[in-house]
Amino acid sequence: MLTDTALAGSLAGIVGQAHVIAAGGDQEPYLVDWRGRYHGRAVAVVKLGSTAEVAAVVRLCAAEGIALVPQGGNTGMCGAATPPAEGRSIVLRLDRMNRIRAVSPLANSITVEAGCILQRIQEAAAEVDRLFPLSLGAEGSCQIGGNIATNAGGTAVLRYGPTRELVLGLEVVLPDGTVLDRLQGLRKNASGYDLKQLFIGSEGTLGIITAASLKLFARPKASALALVALPEMEAALRLLERLRGTVGDRLGSLEAMSRGQIEVIAEHVPDVAIPFALDCPWYLLVELTDTLAGTDLRTPLEAVLGAALEEGLIADAILAGSEAQAAALWRIRHSVSEGSKRAGYVVSHDSAVPLERQAVFVRNTERRILAAVPQARVVMHGHIGDGNIHVLAILDRDRTPDAAAAAPVAQRINEIVDDETAAQGGVISAEHGIGLSNRDRLARVTAPGDLDLMRRIKALLDPQGLLNPGKILLPAPR
Amino acid sequence: MLTDTALAGSLAGIVGQAHVIAAGGDQEPYLVDWRGRYHGRAVAVVKLGSTAEVAAVVRLCAAEGIALVPQGGNTGMCGAATPPAEGRSIVLRLDRMNRIRAVSPLANSITVEAGCILQRIQEAAAEVDRLFPLSLGAEGSCQIGGNIATNAGGTAVLRYGPTRELVLGLEVVLPDGTVLDRLQGLRKNASGYDLKQLFIGSEGTLGIITAASLKLFARPKASALALVALPEMEAALRLLERLRGTVGDRLGSLEAMSRGQIEVIAEHVPDVAIPFALDCPWYLLVELTDTLAGTDLRTPLEAVLGAALEEGLIADAILAGSEAQAAALWRIRHSVSEGSKRAGYVVSHDSAVPLERQAVFVRNTERRILAAVPQARVVMHGHIGDGNIHVLAILDRDRTPDAAAAAPVAQRINEIVDDETAAQGGVISAEHGIGLSNRDRLARVTAPGDLDLMRRIKALLDPQGLLNPGKILLPAPR
């Protein structure tokens, strides 16, 4: 068995001395997750320069029995990219693998390396008059490899689908160091099992994504945005149904925030203006987009909202009169994570439930959390059209300075949310993944047969259990 | 071990005597594939009435070591639903499981049993003013379970994606008789491995799909259709690029036919009129659709085609002036399988290649087939925007009355097409699947590591090898 020093030397032999950070070096940013809840350690943090280097490092670690933790932009919500505190691991960073290998406006596809920052891909698409639709708060620093490994969601899922549906092909280094090349950017492929699907959303536990071929779309060239005040959550769903029946696939986003969620932002995020009275329980951003320049979207949006206002379905509506006004309204929505994080210790959730159950889910969950934990501030935001509502219970930092202090209360809240999610036929993670935060919850709400099949797939691909160990699945019961 | 008679009795005990066709009964339609190329035998054909019955039959067969061949509408092109001629098998028919369990225009989803005829699902969607976009020649008789098992394509993939992208959830009976319930119709789910993906496109070799939750879309309420005559294939791709840049996501279908393909239809399919001169090598159907009623699509389509005509990019264009005229043009396209089948013995292909390589692929393939097999009539049709071109070599029935007589020539042609497909970075099956017809070709063009991983997944899920044995993968080398 190689000593830590010898291992770091062997790694340097593969990637170059400059790209290995041994223990004692400046490893800290890579050992802790974005929320600061998990802290691990690593024999080395390795910055890889090519797929061949990834394969060589994986082979070395397979031979030595060293765990590998792939890490993208380290912006995940569930600790999936943090190395374990026990045992010997290395962290794999793919920042240097950030080339855009090819863009085809003809085929509407782009091929990128896993370390590409999401925003850079959006920009490269825009440069050829196309859209890469994945959009989320961390887009300025998250990496596409991590987005794919998490099957990330965001604000454009309603129209374009989650990350899985944007992936045309993948290049993956398997746990034995072989490279699976399924990178062909083909829309149609019925040639045997679609192996790449295994790796999307598996959080680096089955293989290391090194490159991807992704879908591009026609770029929206007209849009209209409204902020709507709602007397109750049901109104959002009734509005959705009307929009589906009238503007059809011009419906781009439908993002809800509870009044409390907006209050938290107003209190804690400087420079975010709230240009409307907070006298309703729910607020909704409705965005229509069209790929034909000059299309009038205001008129159909005004028509739907005007009728809804007249009937009392909605309480008020503001149509953005300019791009700047639209950006200011979007800014509120994009500040939810920052505002909540500053407001206290956040016990957050990522449930998706069938749309018909969304209103009752929201109501029951809030009532039960407040009954069990009266000191919690319960706020919510979510992607209404996807059934994905983030329920956040914010706890006072004085009483809950850290995860350990919050643990008993957090567990109680989690149980309530999981219980309501299951009762309404939903899933506990819609877009954030499982990582470390949610694996006991996943184990609690998932059918034993499904968990067993997931375990068998993990054992088939990674028999030594070296790839991102302990993520998604709890250690098997003995 | 149960005798055949005892087995038929046990099956009747599960599904009822009326729903078991024992050997000697009227099994014939279920023992032969649509093209009449494969002929198998079965201890029994069983018509199942519920998921519980499927599970009970699977458990019985698992205990007895009997192979199971799930069969949808039996319209597949590759023999994937035909039982083997050797050994003991039963054929599972799901015709009776044809209920639409739920439709939600709010969530844009529909939940159906696997035996539902595709057209019935399209109609159920239309009844609530929605679209289920999967559309293909056999839609009046194929079943959704088979469509999903094949990851079927069709003429709407360009806009809506292949079947995989239309599936929100699945219910599957696993080879041990347990039921995997992943039927939640949620758009977003990042809760562990997405197990349902395994079964989409696996042609019944890993599990038996019994129900599905599917996406619905806003229904197109305006459309414009043109038939365009092209001096060369490249022109289709240049036209596609212009359409993407102008009409964007209003582009619904882009279907190409070679002159020879249309001639075959004109010669062999009665009642199909060809209302244009056949003096160009390629013809293209271009359809724009919009979900807003009354949208003018003729003007932008005329603008693009007018400019292309002026520049000499295209040779001619006919815009359909009425729905009847549009239907008549679509009828030509929908007659390609029938016309080709009547014209002779068809060696057909289903390659997809990157769009940039499509024109060279078409040219090289035709040239090489004609050089090697001068008596072949080479015709083509395909889904230009997906890179999916069907190359058909039609052989004279007098010289090639059946598959055995055609075998040596077919193999030579297959090798040429496979070789060109691989040279252009494509795949041999875009939408028809592998089944029996293409498994040796798949083995030849697929990386050994990929094939090995497919085999290991098969062995993991179906260690006894009882589920649709011999399909997709050749028996493992010893």
UniProtKB/TrEMBL annotation, chains A, B:
InterPro entries: FAD-bd_oxidored_4_C, FAD-bd_PCMH, FAD-bd_PCMH-like_sf, FAD-bd_PCMH_sub1, FAD-bd_PCMH_sub2, FAD-linked_Oxase-like_C, FAD-oxidored/transferase_4, Oxid_FAD_bind_N. Residues 38-219 form the FAD-binding PCMH-type domain. One of its GO terms (biological process) is respiratory electron transport chain. Its cofactor is FAD. The keyword DNA repair does not apply. GO terms for molecular function: catalytic activity; FAD binding. PANTHER family: BLL6224 PROTEIN (PTHR43716:SF2), D-2-HYDROXYGLUTARATE DEHYDROGENASE, MITOCHONDRIAL (PTHR43716). Belongs to the FAD-binding oxidoreductase/transferase type 4 family. This is FAD-binding oxidoreductase.
